[in-house]
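Exam revision sheet. Question 4 asks you to relate a sequence to its structure. Input first:
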Amino acid sequence: MLFQRVKSIEHILESAQKKGLKRQLGAFDLTMLGIGAIIGTGIFVLTSVAADKAGPGMMFSFVIAGFVCALAALVYSEIAAIVPVAGSAYTYSYAIFGELAAWMVGWALILEYAVAAAAVAVGWSGYINGFLHEIDFGLPLALTAGPADIIVLADGTISEGGFNLLAFLISLFVTFLLIIGTAKSARFTAVLVVVKIAALMAFIVLALPAVKAVNFEPMLPNGWGTPLSGVGILGAAASIFFAYIGFDAVSTAAEETKNPNRNVPIGLIGSLTICTVFYLIVAYAAVGAVGAQPGGELSLSKEPLAFVLREVGYPTVGNWVASAAIIALPSVVLMMIYGQTRVLFTMSRDGLMPAVFSHVHERFHTPHIVTMVTGVAVALFAAMFPVGMLADISNSGTLFAFFMVALGVMVLRRREPHLRRPFRTPMIWVVGPTAMAGCALLFISLGWGTIRLFLAWAVIGLIVYFTYARQRSLLGNLQEAN
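Answer key, structure tokens:
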């Protein structure tokens, strides 16, 4: 009985038409949303985390993480074009594996989107708190980090945070933007994307000439790393994977996209390609300009790109890059909360979440209630936990979802070979298994502590499903009635 609740693709499309969202986004909007979701805390903040784990070898980490994401984007494009509705990997799993698997994927996506949004908010707060400190308007230390964060002061002493006030407030502001309308949010995001790209271009132009071969030695201070260790090139790749996630948030906008069969694949692949090129050049320039040995200054910096520019003699531009991060990182918070609300909206429409989550505002045409609930939860996460912990937990949910999507596309190829596929993943029997293997490798490279938290979250998800969601499933009730 557990695997009999499979929702047909025709039924999914019909449900979306009956209680759907307004289609108002084009290919350019999706590409901008994708870039807005991808370029953020990963490159502006987690570069230092990667340096601490892998040293200059983090160059390989960027390549590995980008390669796995590229494979995932290819399989995502096929299924998103077939099922252009809200819900992302949750909806796809419902159509292929059934309700239980779909629920677990949707439950894991809460880690991907909500926890990721909190991580980005914390990364943003590090930049804005540094800026306020520079102009003598800094907040008390207890209001700049959460209680789970450890703060190393200038004199080497260690302190604990209290409540990350600015991360909390930016999360609530972004929630307000999402409530008043998707199109407004997309235009807001497009402006911030330009700001982020300009900042990265400035960094590349000024840091590349300062690259020195000596800064790449030793190249692999911690080696390649071992499974469950969380260090070395694989450990850094597992963390820096966070720099790429977000491209699949484009697929959650499928139901609000004009001509989704064409525009969703363009948004997915286009945004990921642009970001990958930027990341590799930025990582090379950062490592080559100042070095990136574990425990070094770059690995300890809260604002690594600004730090590099200051070190190579461009302190003013470094401050501008920091300002760009302050201005632009909220767009990533926006896209992550956006993705989370669309997943919960779809789960609610299926009866697995409270019905109120699928209510749409009469004026703004957005799922305002679920957006408010998600925004408050994100704000609280951001106020309490450090960025590194949040990013790794988010990655665990993302990798699980990517694994299931890759498997699902291959299953669908076998089960329904004649299904209309506006976009077909090339060499699926190579791309699919390789994507799954890559996701599994990065997952176990997150470290045992993160994996343990993911497993605990999965157990909670199973309990919620069997005590609440299963009895309220619209599909289940319909099957029992028949």
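Marking note for examiners. The chain is about 70% helix and 0% strand.
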